[in-house]
Design goal:
Shape: globular
Oligomer: single chain
Number of helices: 4
Distance between the termini: 22 Å
Low-confidence stretches: none
Largest sheet: none
Strand content: under 5%
Helix content: 55-70%
Structural class: mainly alpha
């Protein structure tokens, strides 16, 4: 469900999930797909990594999305 919502928000079409990874890298940099996976895992209680850098990385990603729109 997350990938479809992101595809809709970023690409304008929820069915374009196959293009999402490339677009995330283009907009948010090479770490964007991994960041989204970590955030998604955390939302479901499955993240066991360090959360120290997540807020800053998330803020940078959101700013990149806004700047790209």
């Amino acid at each position: 469900m997350l990938r479809q919502r992101l595809a809709l928000a970023i690409l304008g079409d929820a069915s374009r999930t196959d293009e999402l990874g490339k677009e995330l890298v283009r907009v948010g940099g090479p770490g964007a797909p991994a960041l989204l996976r970590r955030l998604n895992a955390g939302a479901h209680g499955d993240f066991d990594g360090s959360v120290r850098d997540l807020p800053h990385e998330t803020e940078r990603f959101v700013h990149a999305l806004v700047d790209a729109s």
